[in-house]
Amino acid sequence: MYNNSMDKKISDKVINRLTLYHCILQDFIKSGSEYISSKQMAALLRIDDSQVRKDLNLLSNSGKTRVGYPVKELKKSIETTLGFSKNKKAFIIGAGNLGMALAKYDNFSNYGLNIISLFDNDPEKIGKEVNNKKILDIKDLPVLVWKHYVDIAILTVPACYAQNLADYLVNMGIKYIWNFTPTVLKVPDDVQVWNENLMGNFLQFTYDIK
């Protein structure tokens, strides 16, 4: 991802930290705080405050000596850098428990992600609604991708169907796949896949537990 205003490449790790800073800033705004320091953010995330300052130097925002960063300005700068204001349309492929849970998560819209609908092949699910989003027949996907100009698919199907559905998505023009399945997908070079490794994250978190 790029920060268009400064033409600097931002790594995935920095993007992840910037989103965490954004969450902290939202809480500070709610509490009425006008300024925040790098030390305060670092303490909450248990990282070094020099790392926070380094990350924030990528933004077009500056702090004030002995005062800190203006909370509202810093929040806006993160939103501009990460493209929150740009609306990104997506479909959820697979209306199982995980797909349903993601459809119910309203905060996606705060980050520019607009989930339009879900798709499945189960006749008992097709036609129902989840959080005002319809569950549609997977057979209708090609037409609706074109109709709504959608290029993001959130894949939440069982592992055994993942690759076939990825091929199906690529053939209809999907360029970005957010993969929640425990499958390493094979896609063309012009298609981007982000693997959400839930079990890998869990094992990293619990590695030291004996």
Which SSEs are present, and which pair or pack?
Layout: E1 2-3, E2 8-9, H1 12-30, E3 35-36, H2 38-45, H3 49-56, E4 69-70, H4 71-82, E5 88-93, H5 97-103, E6 113-120, E7 129-130, E8 133-137, H6 141-148, E9 152-155, H7 159-171, E10 176-179, E11 192-195, H8 198-206
Helix pairs in contact: 1-4, 2-3
Description of the structure:
This protein is α/β, with parallel strands linked by helices and 210 residues long. The protein folds into two domains: 2-82, Arc Repressor Mutant, subunit A; 88-201, 3-Layer(aba) Sandwich (Rossmann fold), CATH 3.40.50. 40% of the residues lie in helices and 20% in strands. The chain has helices at residues 12-30, 38-45, 49-56, 71-82, 97-103, 141-148, 159-171, 198-206, and strands spanning 2-3, 8-9, 35-36, 69-70, 88-93, 113-120, 129-130, 133-137, 152-155, 176-179, 192-195. The strands form three sheets. Strands 7-8-6-5-9-10-11 form a seven-stranded mixed beta sheet, sandwiched between helices.
Fourth CATH level, the homologous superfamily of the largest domain: NAD(P)-binding Rossmann-like Domain
The CATH level-2 architecture of the largest domain is identified as 3-Layer(aba) Sandwich
Shape: elongated
Number of strands: 11
Which regions contain 5 or more consecutive residues with pLDDT less than 50?
A: 1-7
Cα Rg:
20 Å
Distance between the termini: 38 Å
